[in-house]
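Collaborator request, handled under Task 6.
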Amino acid sequence: MATALSEEELDNEDYYSLLNVRREASSEELKAAYRRLCMLYHPDKHRDPELKSQAERLFNLVHQAYEVLSDPQTRAIYDIYGKRGLEMEGWEVVERRRTPAEIREEFERLQREREERRLQQRTNPKGTISVGVDATDLFDRYDEEYEDVSGSGFPQIEINKMHISQSIEVKHITSPHSAWAQVNEAQHQSSWNLEFGAGDLQGPLLGLKLFRNLTPRCFVTTNCALQFSSRGIRPGLTTVLARNLDKNTVGYLQWRWGIQSAMNTSIVRDTKTSHFTVALQLGIPHSFALISYQHKFQDDDQTRVKGSLKAGFFGTVVEYGAERKISRHSVLGAAVSIGVPQGVSLKVKLNRASQTYFFPIHLTDQLLPSAVFYATVGPLVIYFAMHRLIIKPYLRAQKEKELEKQRESTASDILQKKQEAEAAVRLMQESVRRIIEAEESRMGLIIVNAWYGKFVNDRSKKSEKVKVIDVTVPLQCLVKDSKLILTEASKAGLPGFYDPCVGEEKNLRVLYQFRGVLHQVMVPDSEALRIPKQCEWLPLCVAFLVHRKVVGDFSACGMTVTFPLGSQGLVWSPRKQDGLCHRCS
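Structure tokens returned to the collaborator:
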């Protein structure tokens, strides 16, 4: 499936992939890989002017990669933030003897300074539109009291309330090391939020919200509000004191005066996979106890399932629902509320960027099983139908459109990468010829064919075009001592490779010959590859040991061999370990 790429993915060179070393590679491994590529691309080895120019460009690229990775400071920066991190201003003042952790802290400080300047120019507007719908006529009309009502042949659905609010937020930053202890972990010392709302029942609302960190683990929020109604102006004040109890748990104490005065205490635990809340409120007119749980699925759509139980002087309410990301900036959620004496309600919410659209639909004042059933099943059926018929095709078209824009914007870069790869292949020809001769002489590893790119194996995707390139020569050039080892990194950065299908899933398929036997392997782009496999060495090991009549435990090559004296039999058992004994390597 096509995926959108960030600019960093398109612009950054993968130095580890270029040198074909692990990210944990030692200085000796880096030096060995660097020397090997230098011998391959050294300009003095090529007499043809065109090849010499191409070799010089590739040689400089390899040299640049080695310079970055061989220096502990620049390597730490590159490992954390990539090539762009090296181009950031301010590194000249960093002491070279600092550890990677100190370098990370210094980089984050420089980033915070830029972020602070940007945040001070933002107002972060947010808005909410709430539209209440009365749909009780769908279910209550079947009661006996409705039977004699004239004109009740078609159920009536009407909007019974509406509320619109808009807010702006201004952040005042005085200390880059303080932390917002609530959810967003922003680096703000204090901020204020101005909100204006209007509705058809309660009248306009003007509010001012102030926030401040008291300590690194404690903060306070104060919300002042003025409610304008037909009965006059009603002031309100809400103060919240919160403290981080541990990394994922926050305790809150809330006092509200004026509009629905109350005192509330709650504990919220938010982890990567769950969100748990326990709350107790004493107030006028409502006092209640609340417990809620939300499970977060670790999928691309950020699916969440939640349930809650709320009991108080007003009655008892059970609520369950789910929410899911339907596009890059949109989250759709629905919840069913079942209560006594409130009845059954369906709540639909759509978050689109910084705007929230909320639709509470009141279905019935009674506990009707039919209302609960339709409130639960109806949204699911509608969602899956819309997802399949509308949302999924729309998202697919959007991704293809974005992907096409990326291809057009990066066409010149991809063309340059292709030319560099073709040049590298031409420079490898002589080395590959010698490697093949050496491998053939000992019946070693010969790369017969190798392809890299997008393969279409699913019959349902016959219309999609296969986009692969031939990488037989580059892979054969990486063979050493009858072994080919590729690290866990995108293969597009290897010498002689380039990305034939930007933003799409890629695989590497290799057809190779080892000990006169053909084998084939296919691996995803970022997975490691090691050929030949251990099982392909075993026949040779056994034959060698039978011929030599060797007795012993060769745990390094994954086998135990016993050759009893005076016997012609051989007993061996493989172990699940990598590597070969010294006789077979």
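The cover message to the collaborator said: "Residues 107 and 517 are 52 Å apart (CA to CA). The two ends are 41 Å apart (CA to CA). Please let us know whether this matches your experimental observations."
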